[in-house]
Amino acid sequence: xxxxxxxxVLEYLTGWGVPADIALILKAVIxxxxxxxxxxLANFITRKILLVYIKxxxxxxxxxxxxxxxxxxxxxxLANFAPVLVVYFVVPKALVQFPLAVEIIQKGMEVLMLxxxxxVFNALVNVLHGFYQQLPMAKEKxxxxxxxxxxxxxxxxxxxxxxxxxxGKSPWFxxxxxxxxxxxxxxxxxxxxxxxxxxxxxxxNNMVKIGDWIEMPGRSAxxxxxxxxxxxxxxxxxxxxxxxxxxxxxVSESFINWKGMEESEGRRIKRAVxxxxxxxxFCTPAMLDKFRKIHYLKDYxxxxxxELIKYNEEHGVDHSILVNGRRQTNLGVFRAYVTAxxxxxxxxxxxxxxxxxxxxxxxxGIPLEIFVFSMEKSWPVYESIQADIFDHILAVVPxxxxxxxxxPTGDDFRVFASQLQSAASPPQKG
Length: 430
Prior knowledge:
By secondary structure, this protein is α+β, with helices and mostly antiparallel strands. Helix content is 57%, strand content 11%.
């Protein structure tokens, strides 16, 4: 019968005259030390020699995907198997006289190998995810949610295998008992299940992706999508804060995705100036002469006036009353000016929707709405263009004998009271 390492060590110690009981203790210490030294040697050779050599080969290669094996530490985790395998195969030879200890140690090594295998598979999944992120299509569709589901599945399988190994039962024994825990699992993993379904819907319908600008007032989110995971969406708002909310909220609640605007040819400008109703009136000949001097209005005034004169002559209009016939108004001329001004603006898109219109009058006046598209979509540039346009419009309103409506302020009331007081005071005798 083949002798074990422990037998050789024990015979060697007793041959030197060491008492039997002390020899047994020394044998256990020596064998344990030898096993640890072998494990350390295997770890050293694997990490300091073999792994270093493989890293050099990978760095010299022209491929990018193999660099992920180092970046995601897949090779490092695989190297952990070396010392565990040494212990697993050496222990039965070294401790043949201690079958119970051998069984316990080997069982522990098997559990450890399962955990190490889980870490290796986890790293390989990270490698696959990293490789996918290098592809152009990764910008359109994120698979992080699916990666997380795959990891959860790996953890579940590893947990079942470890339980079956420790209990000495078949994995099917534990899987069969999972039916009773289904309701509990559904409750515990409710958000995960909802997030997984939402991830599929978001990806299939191309609703949102990393880098999109979304606006979700109900979740205080207005900014760039930084991360979409199985359970959480992270949005970096424009004030640099981070808003986080469940992934399924993007499916169950409404949100605005500005991707369509960013991919289009322009960005909409929709804003109104409120004109005081009391300032609207018919144009006098003096006013028309003044408006003809405005570069953008000269042709419009002449052509419009010819049209109106011809109409009024054909219908025999009595000009002694202004309401008879057709006449130009200062508001109509102003609207024509704004239209011409925007038509000649270099930053306004002429091929998209272009409107300058009146809206329904309100207690604040007549809204003159501008509905056009800026050729610049960058937020700061867009806001600057919009501000320049309305700066100009507000400045030229008085040139058309119009007033912009504004609620009265304290200064207005004080001026009015002062005027009343002056009017009520009797004139002083000289």
